[in-house]
Protein 1
Amino acid sequence: MAEAFTMNGGDGLQHVFRGKSDKQISLIGILQRAGSNAAKETMREVIFEKLDVRSPTSASNTFRIADMGCSVGPNTLFSMQTVQESIENKYPSQGFPPLDLEFQVFFNDLTSNDFNTLFASFPPNKGYFAVGVPGSFYSRLFPASSLHFVHSSFALQWLSKVPEQLLDKNSLAWNKGRIHYTSASGKVANAYTSQFENDIDDFLNARAKEVVAGGMMVLITLGRPDGTHHSKLPLCLLLDALGSSLMDMAKAMELTAPMSKTDVPVGPQDMVIHLRAGIEGMLAKHFGNDIIEELFERTSQKSAEISYALEIQLFVDLKRQ
Ligand SMILES: C[S@@+](CC[C@H](N)C(=O)[O-])C[C@H]1O[C@@H](n2cnc3c(N)ncnc32)[C@H](O)[C@@H]1O
């Protein structure tokens, strides 16, 4: 599962964008960046107020930052720039002399992530030493007490695996005919919740060992407004439309049979394209590439009425004692 989750890389994005106008492509970029932009000011504030690493180590002036689940860019580059600038400005803005720091940024994602696309997009004057770190952030990735700042945006919603009960025909949480919990029983939603609890525990335990005392972690992830049931959330409705399209196709044909290729329709469903950039790899691995075009065309049609007004994000900042 962890390996199936990677976002579309260089060629993959071209594939998703094929047939789209420049306006639509830039709208997708704007959607992806909107969440990070919203968090930018808050991130500056927490770094100014809470980060407490005046001298990274007695032996070195290297400040180490890690982005967990960086994908292929460009959001990770904007986020790392914000973190670096905020740290550089922190002490002068508080009346102290600037720290003489060198920055090292670790870009982490799963081994199947297209790191080459990310590396090729680095700006020439990025101002830090860059390192790619392949592997799951649910396990240890760095030596003990080696990181000063950890950032992760819109990645922790990816679980490490499908909760086992969902695949067990004898379980009350067997998720027959669905790919998600939107319209499923409470037992299915509980199975996802338990898996998330285990995963976030593993994530926090690993980072607790890797972050130095006084260092910080900022986690940005999807959330839902208080009092709103998950079945009302736009992303959940979109996943329901995707699951329902899969079921329609499963009833209409052999999923593994080759299908004739059709052009990607140019429609108003930019959120569907956004979703596709995120999960096409996982679906293609499970069902094969041949169904992808038709699947997302059907999902566009089924999700035309969804309102995205309820979308919110959570911003969590944690300081290592
Ligand atoms: C939606 S993208 C977010 C990209 C970027 N952080 C942003 O804010 O635009 C989620 C990324 O998390 C990565 N990811 C998912 N599970 C992971 C894991 N266990 N370890 C490392 N990366 C993971 C995926 O491969 C994907 O690139």
Protein 2
Amino acid sequence: MELLDRLASNLEGLREQSLIRTRRTVETPCGPRVTVDGRELLAFCSNDYLGLAAHPAITAALREGTELYGAGSGASHLISGHSRAHAALEERLADFVGPHLVDARALYFCTGYMANLAVLTALAAGDRNTEIFSEALNHASLIDGARLARTPVKVYPHAGVEALDELLGTSHASNKIVVTDSVFSMDGNLAPLPELLALCEKHGAWLVVDDAHGFGTLGENGRGALEHFDLHSPYLVYMGTLGKAAGVGGAFVAAHATVIETLVQRARPYIFTTAAPPALAHALLTSLDIIGGGEGRERRTHLAGLVAQWHDGLRLQGWTALPSQTAIQPVVIGANEATMDAAAALYERGIWVGGIRPPTVPADSARLRVTLSAGHTAAEVARLVDSINEVNAHMERSRDGT
Ligand SMILES: Cc1ncc(COP(=O)(O)O)c(C=O)c1O
């Protein structure tokens, strides 16, 4: 059939550019050691930065949640799917990040992707004269949210504080929204949030912060980028995900109560979808206890030690380890094929690291995205570092024909 032939030919085009993506089926819980096709691998590719995804206290809370609330919510939040567990989680989240906001409320979403679509579409819908200012390296969900907002979007350069100042200064929009990742998901570096917030306050703009990779890992108490930078402002709209460092699933937006009520009333990705299973919200209460308590602090300290060990041990030629201080530690190789060859060589050695290619990253900047977790031991990170050094030396020798 002609329609199928066209799709097949598109897929062939992806294959020719080494852009076909494949899924591996994992047979064990998410953790540093996983089994794939009956083989045990050391995994450095999940976003389970604190090693909580299979934490016994959290899985026990999840079981308890299903006993208390059953398996599914049965309806959207505004019909009958909003349970006591969702409400309790939202109250806890508002208390957790509230000190950085003014008159804070929080709203739980099924995913971070949906939360980002919700924030940008709902904030933009409030005013026809809206302009969105989006960081060049923002996550796909923010890019899609800005598109769905059907309002002019200006992309400012990565960390381009001066360029943003100029764009905001020349904008005539009455409703300005600046949106940025806090920790860039494919680079691991931090956005200059204090400078961005100062600009937003100067120009009367919202600052939407996507802290998908900071919540739980940054800040003394794991409260994320707002705590790390000690930010306080009514202009902040904060999105944190709960399926990464928090180890469970979903996401939340925290902001001034009026912003949150606007989301409840206007945000289609909140209104027109079945509420997440209440048991997830119940389990997340235990995640928050761990993140905010002594165990969370110990896990963050251990993770920081692993990051230092990684940087100390690397001996790379031709490849570039980015200067990230977070759990995301990319090694830029450049070409798609070489990146996938490096990932395959590591896999042969029993080490699973993701190869990231365009469009997730800009052309010619394909990379290994190494992620470290508090669940890893120093010995496991030593094995990773040795393996990457070996694969790099071997591939560089082959490239040079020596
Ligand atoms: C920066 C960023 N924002 C948002 C998301 C989406 O979150 P979720 O996986 O909960 O949909 C992700 C990753 O998935 C991300 O890396």
Protein 3
Amino acid sequence: MTSSTPTTHILISGAGIAGLALALQLVRGGIRTTIVEQAAGPRPGGQAVDLRGASRDVAARMGLTEAIEPYRVHEKGLSYVDGRGRVFGRMSMEAFDGKGAVAEVEIARGDLAAVLRRELVAAADGLLDLRYGDRIIAVSQDESGVDVRFEHADAARFDVVVGADGVHSSTRRLVFGGEEQFRTYLGGYAAFFTMPTPDDIEEGWFSMRFTPGTTFGIRPDLDPATAKAMLTLRIDRDPALRGDLAAQKELIRRALHGAGWHADTILAAMDAADDFYFDELVRIDVPNPVSGRVVLIGDAGSSGSPMSGMGTATALIGAWLLAERIAAGRGDLDGALARFAEDVAPFAENGKTLMGGGIERMVPETRLQAALLRASMGVMLSRPMRPLVRRMFATAQADLPLPE
Ligand SMILES: Cc1cc2nc3c(=O)[nH]c(=O)nc-3n(C[C@H](O)[C@H](O)[C@H](O)COP(=O)(O)OP(=O)(O)OC[C@H]3O[C@@H](n4cnc5c(N)ncnc54)[C@H](O)[C@@H]3O)c2cc1C
């Protein structure tokens, strides 16, 4: 990649997967890059995320394959368990050619972020300003750039501002409008955190249990001593939950009360976890991720929620496409952003597909539905039904080619 102009200066809001990946490609292309991340330091946590198809190609084109390799979680597949931990259905990685719920390349979100950060710092070459504990508070733009005010740092002008600040993007709010215009509530909340691996858990398997109102699971980690707890709660949206850690944990306590299997182990681990993540499940649709010299990538511009299993893959693809377009534009930043908006659209749309169906399919509402779901899963995952399920997953995630 060659630089557009040596003086181009780009600001990225958010040092998640999208922000770090974009910054890496920009500094590699010789572009001055500033990132502001509101968290005080790198944010750990998150489950294994999938890299399939185009996102795996992007990781390879970014030269990350080798760096990712030691962090790959080799999951054997997904198994469904009952209240006593007995398995009643399995989706093995091999039987579904890495195209089922468990992908061929899985890496914990926190590990992928750490890999990107390391590569970024190594490539920085004096072009990077990575600031934690700060955020944009005001933006005003004209035809040639964007004036930005920060909470802490001095105001500055940039050629382009990129909102990579996630589902609740404040860049989007400041420039494109309120979140409610772009958000569709998908009927529940998700939580993830690290826990000690229970002794009786089947090594390498992502085990999951359905109960009325809550689906919860335990997923292998890179370190066999730890695992990731995941919960999906089917409840009405409650804006008061946002930022209220005590209320979030109380909700989970109530949801897992008497839920059998490892519900109590998960609850015991929840309070000790230093990477507790909780958020509502929403889809984000921004019709055009570009407004003048401000552009949205990753979840800020488009998201199908963690239920899509595609958030990280789509973020990586978007970041790479934007960096490629800026490099190829050779100083024509407006043209580059317009090309990016066209190129990213099919990937953004594809990334919103909910592979296993929506929350109605993933989290039963009543005891009867839970029993029916368990029975249907048993049948769906039986050997004769595998080709059908494989086809379902293949259609859900189209293997889109990367644009030239
Ligand atoms: C801690 C954590 C754990 C996650 N775990 C999972 C998981 O287990 N499974 C799953 O499917 N998805 C998970 N996600 C979401 C997943 O990372 C994204 O869907 C995907 O990687 C796209 O990434 P993104 O960079 O667009 O957004 P994100 O990963 O959400 O990153 C956005 C970044 O922007 C920062 N930020 C937010 N607001 C501001 C602001 N105003 N100014 C500056 N910075 C800001 C955030 O702190 C964050 O670091 C998690 C996200 C986080 C932050």
Protein 4
Amino acid sequence: MPFYPPEQIDLINSYNDIVEVVSQYIPLKRSGRNFKALCPFHSEKTPSFTVSPDKQIFHCFGCGAGGNVFSFIMRRENMTFPEAVRYLARRANIELPEVDSRSASKKEHLLKLHELAAGFYHWGLTESKTGAKARAYLENRGIKDRAIKSYNLGYAQPGWDSFLKYAGKKGYKPGMLLEAGLILDRSKSDGYYDRFRDRLVIPVCDSRGRVIAFGARVFDDSKPKYVNSPDTPLFRKGNVLFGIHQAREAIRECGEVILGEGYFDVIMAHQEQLNNIVCSQGTAFTEVQAQVLKRYTDKVVVAFDADQAGLAAALRGLTVFLQKDFEVRMVLMPEGQDPDSYIRSSGVAAFKKLVAGSIPLIDFKLERLCRMHDIETDRGRLTVVREMLDTITQIESAVLKETYAKKLAARLGVSAGAVWEEYRKQKTPKLSRPTLRQTPEIKVNKYESRLLKYLLENDRVLSLIKDELDPEAFSPPLQPVIELMLTMIRKGESPGSRSLMTALREQESQEIVSGLLMEQSSEEIQLAEAAEIIIDIQKKLLRAKIAECRKTVASKDVAEEETDAILRQSMRLSGELKAFPDRIRKKMEL
Ligand SMILES: [Zn+2]
């Protein structure tokens, strides 16, 4: 990872006013000393995203996101810290020393390699002789030049080692190519061969448009239809949404995202200027993907082929959206059609009409089940109820749950009571699933964070008691913050909000501190209270240590000499327990 000296970071920080930077992305409204906006990191109706020009930090009281201008860019642009540093340096016209290639991270090497590969495949499609059949294939599918260009589509040569040789000439060793998943190891003999051969190649990009993987399709009906990149340090299948970098602004604007089934649904729609569409890569949607989409919208419209055999599985794959409180709607696609084929045959306007006429997932599923089972019979009705409850139980909102249970009962002509009875039978404890990140206020010990807030505002006090505070005494999320503040004080630096934020690298710590700094201090804590909190925290730690000593002595397998040492330590700790409160009060001049 490239290393930039702290002075450089501070300089870049001071030339990038957080209000200006954030304003480039979202409109900020002044509110007292601060600015407010709808949070760009979770969806909300009333603004809880706050930016402080004085402290140069942001914090969202809704989802807990927070930090300084670097963290904002990292989140918003999906960048690493060094990338955000370079980005903001460019923005402020500050020149950074070129980082030599050896110290660039492996990730950056892999990104360069993927860029090289994408260029090679794209050349293969657009210029090589062998690429003619790929060009004909795309033309046949109605894919035009502008889509070929904007999706950087490619063709992998038919030989066993075209790319291997090409990359070799560019200085890439097989080890790196293996790690990137671009070549494979020959199992029966020495050597390697290209993973993608004689296929149409579709680059998969991250949300910033950088190529991180490939999907490659055959031209006929042979199997496998697609060969995809394996998981690499850049790419984890199930974390990436195909098309997201081309779609994210449009999703924000439209307030909803269309989920297609395959690459060509996305490419075709995009070619026809319908941009708010993405797809997962042939897998069920994952929590990570839902989380990514939640940044932009909380409405998904699903456009799957309605009569395919795998629809039931596809529907189950949508529960992750219900759990994350998305509104999920289904497009009623004509039999045997997907967005790609439908746009090709009927035009994008007709497809948009279908999207506009989408119906809630629950209604869709209910109608489908009623067609599949005979609801005139008890058995049929019971099957439908059970299948529907599978979905209804996943819904987060109690009100919606109730609404759908009633709807279900009405449709089947049974009593709502019967449905609830079945519900209680079916309701198994939900699998433990990570809920949305809680706000730091809930997670962190309130008492300790009060003290931390006080110390953040009074580094004079902090320097007075710097030798008395033991970071270990604080609960885990606060430990690194206290530790860092103490280090800064000992080095003679002042841990003001700006420098502290720059030094804190952990997202969690940044969020806690930005939250504390942003809080309105209606009731300022006093020196005396701060002293008592410190005393309390320290006492707890000392008592725990003493108890530990006792336990060790009480256990049988401790040598006699050792017992003596432990007893002495225990006495020393007890003495400290007695002396500590007065010493603190005195130091704080009480
Ligand atoms: Zn938020």
